[in-house]
């Protein structure tokens, strides 16, 4: 069995969609105004975004994007930092990892 779909409720669908497209190479294949977007990765995973407020995910809730190397993690960390995101440097935990608060009200982990 393979998980192939996840829905996130976000405060700003457009900003969340643009963030995920820019930094994580997801492709939007459908929207309904500013309230819904369907994003796909190159492996068939579908991430849908739906508008809602207020957002109250548990403190430890996050989604993750595994990178092919620690260098890719470092590069993405620097891109996000240069673009104004508040990110700490990667650290060794269960992998080479860091977290970023995404537009729309959810947390993303980047790791290798």
Automatic annotation (TrEMBL):
Pfam families: Glyoxalase
InterPro entries referenced in this protein's UniProt entry, alphabetically: Fosfomycin_Res_Enzymes, Glyas_Bleomycin-R_OHBP_Dase, Glyas_Fos-R_dOase_dom, VOC_core
CDD domains named among the record's database cross-references: VOC
Gene3D superfamilies to which the protein is assigned, alphabetical: 2,3-Dihydroxybiphenyl 1,2-Dioxygenase, domain 1
VOC domain location: 2-112
Domain of life: Bacteria
Name listed for the protein in its UniProt record: Catechol 2,3-dioxygenase-like lactoylglutathione lyase family enzyme
């Amino acid at each position: 069995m393979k998980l192939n779909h996840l829905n996130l409720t976000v405060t700003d669908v457009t900003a969340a969609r643009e963030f995920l497209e820019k930094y994580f190479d997801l492709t939007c294949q459908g929207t309904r105004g500013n309230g819904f977007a369907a994003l796909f990765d190159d492996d068939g995973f579908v991430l849908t975004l739906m508008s809602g407020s207020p957002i109250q995910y548990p403190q430890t809730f996050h989604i993750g994007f595994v990178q092919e190397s620690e260098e890719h993690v470092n590069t993405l960390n620097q891109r996000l930092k240069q673009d104004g995101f508040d990110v700490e440097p990667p650290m060794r935990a269960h992998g080479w990892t860091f977290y970023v608060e995404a537009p729309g009200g959810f947390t993303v982990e980047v790791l290798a």
